[in-house]
Design goal:
This protein is about 20% helix and about 25% strand. By secondary structure, the protein is α+β, with helices and mostly antiparallel strands.
């Protein structure tokens, strides 16, 4: 097995592991690598949808997205499509998937089918490192505090993308989570807020909450916390949704990625209640 680090902050590209092997022994190796590097990336993995599902089941119960219509015959899989003439793609902006749920997603397994020759990379940011390097003054202010995460507006996300379909659910979901959560497997502290879904800090004035969140969001986006994946066809990324932020880049311009379809299959594993 060969491990190539993607940056100094997080991420690794793994060679020598075959994801067609959906055995528990192979999964244990993958899970250990994911916990260490936060996101692991595998190229040239021509796995089937059923194999992707079987691998995902080792991580826990599979999650169905509350707003987005799944693939026909595969309710566990979201097919994420950017049409050739679209300049934007689903998953833009720094976020933690469905942090508005009572049990936000544990792990994401994303598999590529069609990839533009350039553009559409995915970026990740290490939220354990973000907490460790946070100013002591802000650490004191958020100690023991909780924040409101809301899906307000998320139901309309699919309307902005030609090939993405909603499932008809328009309900808003809102839940309260600790700003600093403890990873249930590693025991590490994680800065668990994101600019897409975190709306306010409880027990603070609206002004102070906004000021602190603005500083935290800016801190989370520091480039030295990040890594970037350049996709190729038949590649798979597996990441720990509890301990990082991610975003899909929409850098599609004429002559540089625009005019090409981007097709991905996403499976999410249900998480636990943040503590």
């Amino acid at each position: 097995m060969q491990i190539n680090l993607l940056s100094g902050a997080l991420g690794a590209e793994i060679k020598g592991i075959n994801l067609k092997d959906t055995s528990k022994e192979n999964w244990k190796e993958i899970n250990s690598l994911m916990l260490e590097h936060k996101v692991v990336f595998f190229r040239d993995q021509n796995i089937s949808s059923n194999e992707q599902i079987e691998l995902a089941k080792h991580f826990g119960p599979l999650e169905k997205h509350v707003y987005v219509k799944a693939r026909e015959n595969y309710p566990e899989i979201l097919r994420i499509i950017k049409a050739p003439d679209e300049k934007h793609q689903w998953g833009e902006g720094w976020h933690t998937d469905v942090s508005y749920n009572p049990k936000p997603t544990k792990v994401i397994i994303l598999r590529s089918h069609k990839i533009p020759p350039v553009g559409g990379d995915t970026m990740f940011s290490n939220m354990e490192l973000a907490y460790d390097t946070l100013e002591n003054d802000i650490k004191k202010k958020i100690d023991g505090k909780k924040a409101v995460h809301s899906s307000l507006g998320a139901a309309a996300f699919t309307e902005n993308y030609k090939e993405m379909q909603g499932n008809g659910n328009l309900k808003e979901y809102s839940n309260i989570h600790p700003i600093v959560r403890v990873h249930p497997e590693t025991g590490n502290k994680i800065l668990f807020v994101n600019s897409m879904y975190t709306k306010r800090i409880l027990d603070l004035s609206e002004r102070e909450s906004d000021e602190i969140l603005k500083k935290i969001f800016k801190h989370q986006e520091r480039l030295d916390f990040t890594c970037r994946i350049k996709w190729t066809e038949n590649a798979v990324a597996i990441w720990d949704n509890r301990s990082l932020l991610h975003q899909g880049l929409s850098d599609f311009f004429p002559g540089r990625g625009l005019g090409y379809e981007r097709v991905m299959d996403r499976i999410a594993i249900e998480g636990d209640e943040p503590k």
